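We examine the record.
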Amino acid sequence: MIPQNSPEATEMLADLQKSCGLEHELEVTATGAMTSNEGYKAAYEKTMKGWQNKMPASQGTNRFEVENVADYDSARILDVRRSR
């Protein structure tokens, strides 16, 4: 499985961010601000570069990604947990 960067996925993320901000009054960090953050870059490198143990896409489907944005499996790899 080789994920592909997709202009359509990038556009969909921008639409989702806009919708969350307008319709749900959520503060959404702009993609550029997120991907330029040093901590985010380190997490991205750890979870998206090199050999990764990730869940494959379903048979007959493709996996599209937004350039420099971590995928859905990254939180599992980082073992991110909410503090109580």
DSSP finds four helices and two strands in the chain. Helices lie at 7-23, 31-35, 38-48, 74-78. The chain has a mean pLDDT of 83.
